Fold this protein.
Amino acid sequence: MNDQIPRLLLNLIGPGTLAVFGAGFLWAWSIEKRRHYLLMLAAACLLFSAGIATQVLSLPPDAGLNALLSNFFYTAAVIMAAGGLLRRAGQRPSPWLGLAILALFMGLIFYFFYIERSLAARIYVQNFGFGAILLGTALRLRSLARGPLMDRVLFWTLLVFSLQFFPRTLLTAPLVRQADPARFGSSPFWLALQFSLSVVGAALALTVLLAALSDLIEDLRRERDMDRLTGVLNRRGFEERSVALLRRAGREPSALVLIDLDHFKRINDTYGHQQGDHVLRDIGTLLRHSARRGDLVCRLGGEEFAMLMPGADLEGAQAAAERLRAVIAAHRFPLPALAEPITASFGLAQRRPGEPFAIWFDRADAALYTAKAQGRNRAVPAGL
């Protein structure tokens, strides 16, 4: 009796830790409710915690019902965890597949308890099954191994956690005595399971939580750096990301294109600022669709935009600016039919080796001023 209470408290450390992680995911979801995968991960932690508590506290006391209920919690937790991780990566888990897996596991546990009673079989079904589900999830997420640092850590932690189910079960399951289920809680299998959950499982939960928090931080940074009206970067975001982009570009040529809508003040004065906002929104869409992958598009303010083109020389930037100028001139903006066509002027400059960004920007701005002075609706390059 004296040993039961400390042992019970030790066995409850695992579910308590998972419950704390579940609360952490719920807190993260309360900050950004659009990320539904956080709810799935919270449910996974809480369900697995409930499964352990069900076994540790023998609730319900009937062994068969306890085996079925704890298996339901465990299996649902693993399915939720796999689905949450897939959703975070932009993949869509199949709810029907999840229900089918849950039904299969419940059927197998029922069979190996009520029809052909085998504790060892139930252990293998759960542990090999859970390991296979998580290993399959890790393989579907293998692209994370080439992603940012947090994604790489998440992938390898998930892979290690999924693989440990197999050797741990093979080494410890044969030591469980079928005829003495009362000592299951002190068996090498149960102790190894608790250790793996406390170390590798907690490491996985912590890694996933940190990855979720990094997602939230990235969302906040993106909102801070984006112009909400046009959907392109604002000036602050453009300047910060330009530094990193040019550092990666190294000695490759890069071009800067400045864009200014012609006579935009007339649109606001004639048709109102709401119509002007519609025009700016359309311009942002045209710029995003015209930009190459890797280009930075920015709204500097008002009707002024910029596009940074890494790897582009002056000739390539000139061709891109001419194409965009033609696209803007041909676009049907949401204005009355008798409104004058909307055009834009472009100034562009190729960066000189070692040239500071501010001087490079000034040269492109001077070219833009020349384009407007020469009659607008044209693209003027700055000399090298």
Notes: The chain has a mean pLDDT of 86.
